[in-house]
Specification:
The chain is mostly beta strands. The chain has 2 domains: 135 residues, FlgT, C-terminal domain (Thrombin, subunit H); 99 residues. 11% of the residues lie in helices and 38% in strands. It has 3 helices and 17 strands. The strands form 4 sheets. Strands 2, 3, 4, 5, 6, 7 and 8 form a 7-stranded antiparallel β-sheet that branches. Strands 10-11-16-15-12-17 form a 6-stranded antiparallel β-barrel. A two-stranded antiparallel sheet has the order 1-9. The chain is elongated and about 75 Å long. The chain starts with a helix and ends in a 6-residue tail after the last strand. The N terminus is likely disordered. Keywords: Signal. This is Peptidoglycan-binding protein.
Length: 266
């Protein structure tokens, strides 16, 4: 009941999809701001999720060599020690660990690498071994964990919802929190990014892949047609990948469902 209510509320907002008889979504053409609920969901997600375009960017990042009193469990306020190019000009660092590697489901091209969120730390003192104070932890800090510049909180009040250029299409390739059925306000990973023309604020239509069934008369397998299933908001783009947030869903979405540019408004 609660999820159904969320769907109704979101569909009533500015980013509502109009689903005509063709089962293709159409949207208003004028850019519109995000509602507060969507902004909050995006901020929470971005605090704990991040991508890198290539593994080399992580391989050369500074790394943790030890924690205070010889422990590797960093509690808030505890000191950790790291080596690498760390600067007081960067007041806080994200502590990360390499996570899932994403490839294109068709071409097998490397698209990006997920960074598992371990916590954040504040620069304290420079040296061959730099001292940092832990500000936040989500799990045990290990030697070898990497340090990258903390992401600033995004200013979502200026992000406007708009439609991308016609003809853009791709696939949902993963769900960060590992669910199999995707619903409203779930974040997903898309196999398209900036190089493909996606931008923050783009609104996309999602079509659910039709299942293959056996024609009991002819005896051959047939593919059920795709059907319109919901809308996605692109809220963080990388070179070859993007994060999207489900704004509406008239049926459960899943990995490998297709997204596309919305149809022009009638």
């Amino acid at each position: 009941m609660r999820k159904s209510l969320l769907i109704v509320l979101l569909c009533a907002q500015a980013v509502t999809a109009n689903v005509p008889g063709s089962s293709k979504a159409s949207y208003p053409q004028s850019p519109r701001p995000l509602d507060s609920q969507t902004q909050r969901a995006i901020r929470v997600f971005l605090l704990h999720n991040r991508m890198l375009d290539t593994p080399q960017l992580l391989d050369t990042a500074p790394y943790v060599v030890a924690a205070q009193a010889g422990r590797v469990l960093g509690a808030n306020g505890e000191r950790i020690y790291a080596r690498g190019a760390l600067s007081p000009a960067q007041p806080s660092y994200a502590i990360v660990r390499q996570g899932k590697v994403f490839t294109d489901p068709v071409s097998q091209e490397l698209l990006g690498i997920n960074l598992d969120d371990i916590g954040t730390a504040r620069f304290v003192a420079a040296g061959d071994v730099t001292t940092l104070a832990v500000l936040r932890v989500t799990q045990e800090i290990r030697t070898g964990d990497r340090l990258v510049g903390a992401q600033p909180s995004p200013d979502l009040s200026t992000l406007l919802v708009s439609a991308p250029a016609p003809g853009l299409t791709g696939r949902i390739i993963d769900v960060p929190r590992g669910v199999t059925r995707i619903g409203v306000l779930d974040a997903v990973i898309l196999n398209k990014g900036r190089r493909d023309g996606l931008q923050d604020g783009h609104l996309l239509a999602v079509t659910k892949a039709g299942e293959t069934v056996r024609d009991t008369v002819s005896g051959v397998p047939v593919q059920i047609p795709e059907e319109y299933a919901g809308t996605l908001l692109v809220f963080r783009t990388y070179e070859k990948l993007s994060y999207g947030l489900v704004l509406s869903a008239i049926r459960p979405l899943a990995v490998m469902d297709r997204f596309q540019s919305p149809a022009p408004a009638q």
